[in-house]
Amino acid sequence: MPLTAKGPLKRSTRTLWTLLAVLLPIGLGAVILYAQAERALTRSSLETAEEAIRQFDLMLDNSDIAARALLPQVGQDCDEVRQLALREQVTRRPFVRSTNLVWRNSNYCSSLLGNYPVPLVPEDYVDGRLKLMDGNPITPNTALLVYRWSEGERAVLATIDGYHLTNALRLISRFAHLRLQVGDHWLSRNGRVYHGSPPPAAVASEHLSSSHYPYSVSSGFPEGSTWAYMKSQYPALFSLLVFLGAGAGVLAHWLQKRSASPSHELRRALDAQEFIPYFQPVVRGDTLQWAGIEVLMRWQHPKEGLVRPDLFIPFAEHSGLIVPMTRSLMQQTLQALAPHAQDFIDGFHIGINITARHCQDLQLLEDCREFLAAFPPGKVLLVLELTERELIEPTPTTLQLFAALRELGVMIAIDDFGTGHSSLGYLRKFNVDYLKIDQSFVAMIGADALSLHILESIIELSGKLDLGIVAEGIETAEQRDYLAAQGVDFLQGYLFGRPMPSTEFVAALARH
């Protein structure tokens, strides 16, 4: 392929310089890599624990609001308050599964069961406020977090379903092992509640307590994570290359004889306009009418033919060339589609991927303004999809850019939601409009119950946050019917159309 090195390193002698060029840099580089990997994992573990505290505090804040609002109702007849007050709080408060009224330590009224007296032991609650259960008569073997607010002989219970808790433990970080601890019980990512204290993580173990509620969170990584991180990230690559170039004439000679570096080849291809747009249709979930497209980048290499994006996009992001490449892609897209805008429905979605590099460049605003100006007003809705191969930080430049984009009418979507650096963190930090469900969850429809629960939780989360939702990777009628029944707004996948070049798309658009 275009960006692969050709030929192994040639060793002509076994001299002292060769040994210095090979053995010494590897030894020093390994030490540097290991130290940086340990620091990075420790920082990641701490940030993960902090984010978990923020998410669980948010859930409990809603439970606290519901409990305080219901406290004046304690002592009233259950049938009078159940239909209105209790169920209203369950409906209005995110994450709250049920509410209960308690008089003189008797849980006499439930939003789920009505008048169903159950004795309550206040000492079972940590600081009299929190209790982590491994189930109840309605949902046995399913975790449940109970929040208690009391004044004198009156008390209110508000419960949080274990699905919300375990989904947060899974989605906040795909790699770190997160655990929620309340008193002498703790909840793991698998949804099970254990007695005692959670075992400390083998790598980068962190333990944080909430400053608002009596619970704590532990985070860390399994054995061998440091070496795995080193192999996948290479944070000290440049240090190694500098040392190799200064101390090893043989290796430097080999580097100079390479036909072309990845960045050099990408610059050549950009100047030659070899990066071209492919369009994949996006359809409405209810009518299956074409509602827009996602613009995908392909490399039309003069010798290799059509190159898959996973073989060059990471190099483009790493070198910073992804920004001018995307600008070229937007210009080609408007040139191809603007003459056919009359065939679009109003508000035709055009989705374009952006990365962390774009979010630090205010030129993106001008690129979007130029793009929208090529179409009649209201004809096109531009959606920028945040990819998560690199973490996007909420710097002043990024926040200024997002605010200006929103004023311009540009919408923001989180691509591959649930699989990147910190999707839940993005929802908190950035004002987004759409979530795109990753195809790995869609592929499990009808096959994997756990992934289906995650998928349903994402759909439920989007509804509570009033966000649009797009499901990608749909290949079967079963997946289409399930997602349509769940009320997913837009669908995308091979079932509706593969990515196609502009000429083929224009012809297909006329048929639709």
Protein model, in words:
This protein is α+β, with helices and mostly antiparallel strands. It has three domains: 16-36 and 229-256, no CATH class; 41-228, no CATH class; 262-511, TIM Barrel. Helix content is 41%, strand content 24%. It contains 16 helices and 21 strands. The strands form three sheets. The chain has an eight-stranded mixed beta barrel with strand order 12-13-15-16-17-18-19-20, surrounded by five helices. The chain has a six-stranded antiparallel beta sheet with strand order 3-2-1-6-5-4. A five-stranded antiparallel beta sheet has the order 9-8-7-11-10, with helices on one face. Strand 12 (275-284) and strand 13 form a beta hairpin. Helix 1 (16-70) crosses helix 4. The chain is globular and about 80 Å long. The two termini are 37 Å apart.
Please outline what is shown here.
The chain is α+β, with helices and mostly antiparallel strands. Helices cover 41% and strands 24% of the residues.
Secondary-structure-derived class? alpha+beta
Number of DSSP E strands: 21
CATH topology of the largest domain: TIM Barrel
Distance between the termini: 37 Å
Mean pLDDT: 83
Radius of gyration: 27 Å
Please give the domain count: 3
Low-confidence stretches: 4-14, 252-260
CATH H level, superfamily name of the largest domain: EAL domain
User: In the CATH hierarchy, what is the architecture of the largest domain at level 2?
Assistant: Alpha-Beta Barrel
Binned, the helix content reads 40-55%
Shape: globular
> Largest sheet, described in full?
8 strands, mixed, barrel
CATH class of the largest domain: Alpha Beta
Number of helices: 16
Give the neighbour order of strands across the main sheet: 12-13-15-16-17-18-19-20
